[in-house]
Amino acid sequence: MTTDAIRPAVHHHHQPWYKILYVQVLIAIALGILIGYFYPDLGKSLKPLGDGFIALIKMMIAPVIFCTVVHGISSMGDLKRVGRVGLKALIYFETVSTVALAVGLLVGRTLQPGRGFNIDPASIDTKSVANYVTQAKEQGIVAHLMAIIPDSFFGALARGDLLQVLLISILSGFAIAYMGKAGEPIAAAIDKAAKMFFGIIRIIVRVAPLGAFGAMAFTVGAYGLGSLWNLAALIGTFYLTSILFVLIVLGSIARLSGFSIIRFIAYIKDELLIVLGTSSSETVLPQMIQKMEHLGASRSVVGLVIPTGYSFNLDGTNIYMTLATLFLAQATNTPLTIWQELGILGIAMITSKGASGVTGAGFITLAATLSIVPDIPIQSIAILVGIDKFMSECRALTNLIGNGVACVVISLSEGELDKEALHETMAHPLELGEALEPGGGG
Q1: How far out from the chain centre does Cα 331 lie?
Q2: What is the band of 110 on the pLDDT scale with cuts at 50, 70, 90?
Q3: Which residues contact 369 (CB under 8 A, 6 or more apart)?
Q4: In angstroms, rounded to a whole number, what is the distance separating the alpha carbons of residues 387 and 394?
Q5: Percent of the chain, pLDDT > 70?
Q6: Residues in Cβ contact with 276 at an 8 Å cutoff, skipping those fewer than 6 apart
Q7: Complete domains list, the chain, with CATH
Q8: Sign (positive or negative) of CA dihedral 139, 145, 151, 153
């Protein structure tokens, strides 16, 4: 990574604390909570700040993924290797995200956070979830698969639907790789374009504190910390489960691969804070790509693993899906047999795949899962609307850590990373402004 292009790295140590991005984000989150709590109406009116920041980053996601995936595949040169890395990634994603689903199920069964709610489904006001329910009813498996195909090549980039963008990127990458020599100038041009897109993101990231401030003020203003108390058992269970999942499951995977999960979390703390503020893990997708390259993972592996992980490796969303489903079954006193629970697990494996990107996607996915499992009354999701924002923070954080770990593990298995160098780099993460200097790490 060349940091000189932005500023000599030496000055970095004398940077005053208030200029460091993660400090700004932390202060913004705290201020947002205070404003939302003491002036709820003002807090609600700040929603556009959070939405605006997420929208600014989202507009860059499709081009960034397109460039990274295309460059990743076409620069591997050896298409067998693309297949090998892709296969490794998918096997890893499936295994770990199934473990996540199972963890949610086990904890839900053991702690039973929904016991004693005794909610009568008929008494629930369903207006708040009507559109989620209809959205979910329309999504069958076939429709789900057909939706991956965009109406036109540029339609995918224009709409920014992650799975569609992945499809055209993978096809483009292979096509360029097959062209051999003739494809090299195209790959080089796409690489240059990527630098420009990362440059735009470097500018946008500066307003992350504003986004975090607006999003937090709105959430607390609109839903109040009071709404948390009613469902504190579920929120607590979910946060606890996610923390244990990160420390024990991902921690063991990291340990076996030869790095420490705590070190890794410290390495991506800037990104985690932005996710905490905006409750969407998409807001840091471009920075994650750069941070992983900075660790020494090759651009081709990062280009394949991180973007696909955002669709196929959502550990946090998965824990939430099975846990929330059991919570609703317990809250509405719906008895489930062990086979029904395993059925939920199987359905969730499919419905969780497209749930990338959208803030609150976990919620739509949950609705989709429930609409396939007829036993639990789907309108019972209305109980969760108020707290979903507080849950989506934790989903997004867990998803992000899970994807980062996946990338390091697969890169290590490809023999790309030197473990000593890895420890060194993790101990000295780049500041965000510097991290987004493209072109390094390869």
Answers
A1: 28
A2: very high
A3: 321, 325, 344, 347, 348, 351
A4: 12
A5: 88
A6: 25, 29, 212, 393, 397
A7: 20-432 (1.10.3860.10)
A8: positive
